[in-house]
Amino acid sequence: MSQITDLILKQVQASASGSNLGSNVLDGLTDSIFGSVKEKAQSASGIEQITSLFTGKTSAESSPITQLATQLFTKNAAKKLGLDDSTIKVATSLLPTIIGKITSKDSGIDLTSILTSLGASAAGSSSKGDLLGAATSILGKFFKK
Question: Which of 10, 58, 59, 98 is the most buried (most CB within 10 A)?
């Protein structure tokens, strides 16, 4: 679990350098990205959306995961921090870049562990193991693990 959080935080910090966003905003972006992946991993089509993003079938810009991260940041972090519209716009504009870097082949993320730690399941799936097994098989081929 800390692997993805650390990677997200590093990518947030790298992407936000020079933007004058405070550490509280960076933490909000990190929480929003992590929350988006977690929420999607537990939804009916979430594993497919995560797999599609990690395999490059869906770009970070058009991914439902990025869209949800933007919504979560705007709804939760931005309101909690009392951010103005221009700061929100700058912060959320970084999300596709950050998520793109996180989901690249070179990110070093062990997606199987992440999905397992998030308790990935899907509504209507016959079993959690079947879903994780399918995702692991697809992603294992992609990452050659």
Answer: 98
Rounded to two decimals, the pTM is 0.75
The span from the CA of 88 to the CA of 77, in Å, is 9
d(CA 135, CA 138): 5
pLDDT digits (tens, 9 = 90+) for 77-96: 888 999 999 899 999 999 99
Per residue, the 3-state secondary structure of the chain, as one string, reads CHHHHHHHHHHHHHHHCCCCCCHHHHHHHHHHHHHHHHHHHCCCCHHHHHHHHHCCCCCCCCCHHHHHHHHHHHHHHHHHHCCCHHHHHHHHHCHHHHHHHHCCHHHCCCHHHHHHHHCCCCCCCCCHHHHHHHHHHHHHHHHCC
pLDDT of residue 107: 72
Give me the phi and psi of 91, to 5 degrees please. -65, -50
Residue with tokens 């509504």: 123
CA max distance for the chain: 48
Q: What is the pLDDT of residues 61-74, one digit of tens each?
A: 999 999 999 999 99
* Structure-token match 């977690």, residue found: 38
φ, ψ of residue 6 in degrees (nearest 5):
-65, -45
